[in-house]
Amino acid sequence: MKYFVVTDVHDRYGLMRDALTRAGFDPVREDHKLILCGDAFYSGPQPGELFVYLRELHAAGKLVLIYGNHDYELLDNLRAGRFGRAGNRTCAAAIVAYITGQREFTTDAELASACEQLGFTAFLARVPVPYFETDHYVFTHGFIPTSKNRYRPDWRDATEKEWRSAASRGDGMLLSMRYGVNEPGKLIVFGHYSAARCYLMRNATEADWDNKLYKDVSAVPPEGFRPFYGSTFIALDQSVPKTGFINCIVLED
Questions:
Q1: Which domain holds residue 140?
Q2: What are the distances in angstroms from CA 26 to CA 34, 42, 57, 222?
Q3: DSSP secondary structure, 108-126, as one string
């Protein structure tokens, strides 16, 4: 199987399709499948187009969608009928507008109800998974659940709360590069934090770690936002609002 892997699309449907086209993704082929490592939705320009496309791929058995922290949060907002972040409301409203043309909503509850009627809430509740695993790779959003920066052998049995925490606060760069957490025999593929942080810390000293040099990626050149291949991991997040492109890697397994 050829897996076409992207992450942190943040509603940039057009940029994602461009990246998939360049990589040669063809959903008609039996051996092609898309893996989206979380944060599909949030505050971008084309969530409606993205939802329709992902729904079609899922129906055809061509999608692995992983929960990101923003996806969890958007689902919580839809279920509660209240939008905590403006970006979540913008995303939900754009989806409804794209599919139905309706653009005015009196309350958050009315908008959430419209998303439910369109099947978006059910899609977000039932389709994504916290991780996906093949013979040689583990795909997730922030990282696998750990035990205080140490490898946790039973991470596959983590609770939903623990997976939510890993998606929100899991730092694959720190856990992999500084603390040496890894999955024996497999590469962990993750998004969430910019791959530029890995680029910045590739030759870091202990003082660099202590001073949190990775906090400022403003001087990182464009190539530093491309996929970063470590010995035990692959970091994919391209910081699309900053860079304007989506990374896509192709892995055979």
A1: 2-252
A2: 10, 26, 11, 28
A3: HHHHHHHHHHHTHHHHHHH
The string of pLDDT tens digits covering residues 176-190 is 999 999 999 999 999
Label residues 108-141 b or e (16+ Cβ within 10 Å = b): beebbbbbeebebbebbeebbebbbbbeebbbbb
- Tell me, rounded to whole angstroms, the distance of Cα 192 from its chain centroid: 6
Contact criterion met (CB below 8 Å) for 201 and 172 = no
How many domains would you assign to the chain?
1
What is the chain's mean pLDDT, rounded?
97
Enumerate the H helices of the chain as residue ranges.
13-23, 47-59, 69-80, 86-100, 108-118, 120-126, 160-169, 172-173, 195-200, 206-210, 240-243
Residue 170 pLDDT greater than 90, yes or no? no
**For position 44, what pLDDT does the model report?**
84
Enumerate the β-bridge partners of residue 187.
137
The SS3 assignment for 170 reads coil
pLDDT of residue 93: 97
Q: What is the mean pLDDT of residues 98-120?
A: 96
Domain of residue 246, CATH code: 3.60.21.10
Is residue 238 within 8 Å of residue 225, measured between CB atoms? yes
